[in-house]
Amino acid sequence: MLKNKIIAIIGTGNMGDALVSGLIGSGSSKPKNIICSDVRKDKLAKIKSSHKVRTTTSNLKAVSEADIVIYAVKPQLMASVLNETGKKLDMSKLVISIAAGVPLAAMESCIEKNMRLIRVMPNIAAAVKEAATAIAAGAHATKEDVKLAMEIFSSIGRCIFLKENYLMDAITGLSGSGPAYIFLIVDALADAGVKMGLSRQDSLFLAAQTVLGAAKLLIETQEHPGQLKDKVTSPGGTAIAGLATLESGGLRTTLINAVEAATNRSKELGDLMTKNFNDANNKNT
Q: How many Å apart are CA 196 and CA 177, to the nearest integer?
């Protein structure tokens, strides 16, 4: 379904590079069917050398030749790039944005025409093809469009589809920002290991591998985390002593509050982004 589509990736930063690697590595797309555009010639040279894709410094050229356009630019650049390329966008193209904090409404206000729009929220684990990604569709996107988006982003990890666009803020708070929470937890566990006498190298490895193994066990067994937790804890044992300490320290509540705070901040930034897009659009009309 995807193999014969021409895909333009606007912006070749970390996420754009990860997408190219995932699409080609999974066999979902051929290098000749991928066009990457960027203002940085050194980035284009690197991605062309690594993946043999087509490259250009012209966003307009990339968009005009594509069936699917993926905007992988920084959020603050999104309005100007959309204004630049909007004249080449129409209902014949699937338009996908991975710009964090940019709602579909903001994009629609900028383009001012009906578009097959999809918003995607991956996370930093795309770099190792283990991203947790959520996909939400605009009013004019079809079921086929959603399937295409799912295929694209399954090449860099695992995806879910959200029927409700407004939940993208919660996705940002949970899985978008989530790796930062896990990095902090792993860092703290490693510090604890060092405090107990382990070397820094061994402690960090064991903490990271423990998180990886626990996550894989959850996904592959599909058991509730509470059930798996109970399998680790024996009466009067070490795990229950550690868990009691975590509960008394408020770890569960703190993590819940962290996701809520990040979600609320995402909403604030989204509202600000929509206002900025409208202001930018009014200046151009």
A: 30
